[in-house]
Write a structure and sequence with these properties.
Blueprint (H helix, E strand, L loop, with lengths): L45 H11 L2 E2 H11 L8 H13 L3 E6 L2 E6 L1 H9 L1 H20 L2 H19 L7 H22 L3
Antiparallel strand pairs: 1-3, 2-3
Helix pairs in contact: 1-3, 2-3
């Protein structure tokens, strides 16, 4: 049986962070051996992950995106350009069937899809373990403190800025403060150890 627990509790993510830790569909944490990953999943792995999500319960495409984002504690959100073609592939291969529900395509795992998952359960467990390790490494390192500080800055800035008019002088002052802070952060990265 495939692992049900993806290993991320609700308190794991930094929920105050209003953006992802990189562009959607990308990953900027370190991979195995200290290598940097440019994507969360290797080629062909997404179909196993999506099929596993659909085995939990039938979902439409957007629900697949949100469920995966939640499973990975907000550290990764697959793009629609990844999810929808993968759903189509799974349908073409006979691993899922589509049921139109309230104008949405809801994907259900077929018996063939369940067999396919069972045949590849070791691979899926390996994928889940690797992704869990990668996210934990990313969250557990110094980036957690940086992310928390940035979340506070972003929340404070946007909470107040959107209420101001475009000519409010405070907006210009805040923009200048943020530019200076960005310059200081850049200098900090340039400074050795």
């Amino acid at each position: 049986m495939c692992k049900d627990d993806w290993g991320f509790g609700h308190g794991f993510a930094f929920r105050g962070f209003p953006f992802g830790p990189g562009q959607k569909g990308s990953w900027t944490g370190s991979g195995r051996g200290g290598r940097r990953r440019t994507q969360m999943f290797e080629s062909g792995e997404m179909k196993f992950v999506i099929l596993r999500l659909l085995k939990e319960k039938p979902r439409h495409g957007y629900e697949v995106i949100k469920a995966l984002e939640e499973k990975l504690a907000g550290y990764y959100t697959p793009s629609a350009g990844t999810v929808y073609p993968t759903l189509q592939l799974l349908e073409d291969e006979g691993y899922v069937r589509v049921v139109e529900t309230e104008g949405k395509k809801v994907y259900h795992v077929t018996p063939e899809g369940e067999r396919y998952l069972e045949e590849h359960r070791d691979l899926l467990d390996e994928i889940v373990d690797r992704v869990r390790e990668t996210v934990r490494d990313f969250a557990g390192g110094g980036i957690g403190e940086v992310q928390g500080a940035f979340a506070k800055l972003a929340a404070t800035t946007f909470k107040r800025a959107w209420r101001r008019g475009p000519d409010d002088p405070a907006l210009k002052r805040v923009a200048e403060i943020l530019r200076k802070a960005a310059d200081e952060v850049e200098q900090a990265w340039q400074t050795p150890g």
